[in-house]
Design a protein that fits this description.
The complex is a heterodimer of chains A (118) and B (112). Chain A is mainly beta. The radius of gyration of chain A is 14 Å and the shape is globular. Chain A contains no helices and 11 strands. In chain A, the strands form 2 sheets. In chain A, strands 2, 4, 5, 6, 9, 10 and 11 form a 7-stranded mixed β-sheet that branches. Chain A starts with a strand and ends with a strand. Chain B is built from no helices and 11 strands. In chain B, strands 2, 4, 5, 9, 10 and 11 form a 6-stranded mixed β-sheet that branches. A 5-stranded antiparallel β-sheet of chain B has the order 1-3-8-7-6, with no helix packed on it. Chain B is mainly β. The N and C termini of chain B lie far apart (41 Å). The chains are: A mainly beta (118), B mainly beta (112). Chains A and B meet through strand 5 and strand 10 of A and strand 4, strand 5 and strand 10 of B.
Chain lengths: 118, 112
Amino acid sequence: GAVVSQHPSWVICKSGTSVKIECRSLDFQATTMFWYRQFPKQSLMLMATSNEGSKATYEQGVEKDKFLINHASLTLSTLTVTSAHPEDSSFYICSARELGGGAGETQYFGPGTRLLVL
Amino acid sequence: GENVEQHPSTLSVQEGDSAVIKCTYSDSASNYFPWYKQELGKRPQLIIDIRSNVGEKKDQRIAVTLNKTAKHFSLHITETQPEDSAVYFCAASIGGFQKLVFGTGTRLLVSP
């Protein structure tokens, strides 16, 4: 149980294009999903918290108009990198927290999406 | 803001030895402390977690201890094996939505 999938697993795109990444909880419902970015040999940096049916909460320094998040259902959140530039190249990982929990529920991570912007 | 420090950044041990990784956190309201193992290019995998009402938790070769007063927690791996080689991240919960702040990671290398 507690499987999170991400699609695509990797993407190469030209500078200026937009890229959409999907995060799905496969066998549980997630009221909250999180989007992280990880640069090589670095830690996971939280970008935003995605809540089903409401606007995402972005961390300081993350541009909400550049990284669009939509949490349309209890099993799907999407991250769209708009007008991508080479500096947006990174490993993007989502995580999902199961519905109904109180404080401190486990976050289950997706396999990540490696984005390369040329 | 909340900060989690993790040490050491790299750790090399011989197979069969023990490994200890330490983390400190700054927010006294943090109440959930998971540890993740991440292999190269893969997703972080939860290996053990502890909540603030518990001082120690053990699962086979892995144990975590928490000292709330000092605001630090540690991961202990006994009888290390080469397959334990990976990057380990500690994390601490913050905020009403239980966001996690991650430590900087420890690269563990277990030599046969």
